[in-house]
Every structure is written in structure tokens, then in C-alpha cells.
Design a protein that fits this description.
Layout (H helix, E strand, L loop, with lengths): L5 H16 L7 H13 L9 H11 L1 H10 L4 H7 L5 H14 L2
Helix pairs in contact: 1-2, 3-4, 3-6
């Protein structure tokens, strides 16, 4: 099934670009904090927001950035929520790939 969710499609594309272009160093955590805030503002109409999948991929692909986000999450509610989501990396990757294919 195809879904028309241009805002979600764009945010997933931005996430992939961040993963490819941003080094896994704590000084780049602000870039991901801004992205995660933007992600939570997306309101898909037909499907669920893939927050758990994105966090699982981030945790696996950028462990230093994830660890820094986790440390900073004690004072920031949305970060605390996101960094405490647990999902298997391979399942998350599979779901994101499937989701990308279903977005037109």
C-alpha cells in the first residue's frame, strides 16, 4: 500500500543524510537534538510516526551521539522519552526500509 505523507518522507530522507554526513562525535549531538524535535512535530495522517525505528538505528549507527543524548535527557522530556525506547536494530531497519518504499 502506498501512502501520501510528504512531510514524513522528507524527515526520513533528512535522517539518512544525517547518518551519512555527521561524524559520531558528541559535539554533533545538537544536530540530532534539532532533528528529533523536528521529527516529533511531524503528524502523519495514515501511519504511525517511526520514532522507535529511528532511535534504534541512531543507537546502533551513532553510539557516541546516542550516549550523549541519553546523558542530556534527564532535563529534557522529549529526549528522555525517545532515548528510553527499545527496539531491535534489524527490525527497525527493516520497518524503515518498508516504510520508505510505501511512501510516494
Amino acid at each position: 500500500m502506498k501512502y501520501h505523507e510528504p512531510e514524513l518522507k522528507e524527515v526520513i530522507k533528512q535522517f539518512e543524510q544525517l547518518l551519512n554526513r555527521t561524524p559520531d562525535k558528541p559535539e554533533h549531538v545538537i544536530t540530532f537534538k534539532i532533528f528529533l524535535r523536528q521529527l516529533l512535530r511531524v503528524k502523519p495522517k495514515q501511519i504511525n510516526l517511526p520514532a522507535a525505528e529511528i532511535i534504534a538505528v541512531l543507537k546502533n549507527d551513532k553510539p557516541q551521539i546516542f550516549r550523549t543524548l541519553k546523558l542530556q535527557s534527564t532535563d529534557i522530556a522529549y529526549l528522555h522519552y525517545l532515548t528510553n525506547i527499545n527496539m531491535d536494530y534489524h527490525t527497525a531497519n527493516k520497518k524503515l526500509t518498508s516504510l520508505k518504499e510505501s511512501l510516494n
